[in-house]
Amino acid sequence: MPYKLRVFLLIALLIALSLKGYSAELSKNFQLLEKKFQEGDIAGLNTLLATVTANNDEDRALQLYLSAMLKKTETESVASLQQAVNLYPKTYYGQMSMLELAKYYILKREINQGEELLHKITNAKIIEKFYWLGYCANYKNNYDKAISYCENYIRMSSDSKYLENAYYLIVDAYKKQGKYQSAITTLEKLRKIEGYPKNEQYFYYQLGYCYQLSGNFNDAYQNYKKSFELNRNSPLAFLVEDKLFELRNRYNPSLDLSFLYPYTTLEIPGLIQPEITVPPSASVNKEMPLKLDSKPESGFYVQIGCFSSEANACKRTEEIRSLNISALYFEDKNKKNTPWVVASGPYSSKTEAETVKSILAQKSVDSFITRY
Length: 372
Fold this sequence. Notes:
This protein is an alpha+beta fold. Among the domains are: about 20-125; about 280-370, Alpha-Beta Plaits, CATH 3.30.70. It is about 55% helix and about 5% strand. The chain contains 16 helices and 4 strands. It has a 4-stranded antiparallel beta sheet. A hairpin with an 8-residue loop joins β2 (about 330) and β3 (about 340-345). α5 crosses α6.
């Protein structure tokens, strides 16, 4: 076989191994370890990891990396990753350990430490670093860099792990610069990719918000409406509802918001069950005000929800009372984003509150017990 052809076939084999996800320098048993990890075979991984012997630095780096992934505590995982970084910084899994450590620091808001590790990653196969560099740049208000890093990730990545997030990060960077049309164009690019957006509700919320910021209130309304109707009972739906009321109150008093009512949460078949007897202590007390002037100071309460809008809290309180269950709402000034609390109470004992919680659960209303 001619020399050039042998060289070409060797290069092709190495590329094929890379595309399959295997590190060419791993010994056979460690390639099997890598495969089990990628397939999520944790039981098999644990068993094999205890029996294999590392033959080179690539094996040793993978051994430390996998050990970190299997540790039970944060401290142990970080220690194993740091050991892999210190001992085998040039290996593939030494650099993958850098990536995991960087993500750990970023999620703890230690951005500079995470960014420093990301810049040390030189392996061309670790494309994910560009997404996280974009995240760091956006966090530090370096918007052009954030956009550039995320565009690199989108262009180079062969998987979809952070693809949608990368588009949203670019959108966020454009919004912060006041480039609302560029943000809209970015979202439209995402929509053109087959199978995207995966999170449709968030996508339409973002598109609606960008249109609102750009002054196109009609398209903002249409996209907010799509977002809300995809899941009326999600936390995001309440945020969308706030935006719709903002559109009506600030820009168009005649905006039709009739599609917001009634809430389907309280229309689920079997939600109102006449055969359930509500105890006197949990029945609606007409003398009790809908809104308390301040946060309760004592007693057991069954907390039903927290809201950023007083109007939503009031509405939810009325809905719970319509089930013949005592409810009220108040402002908890210690909470910045969702200060309006809806609760049922007060109850003299935890047992009494547990009974009410059970009744609410039978009516498909989530809640938990708290004591003031």
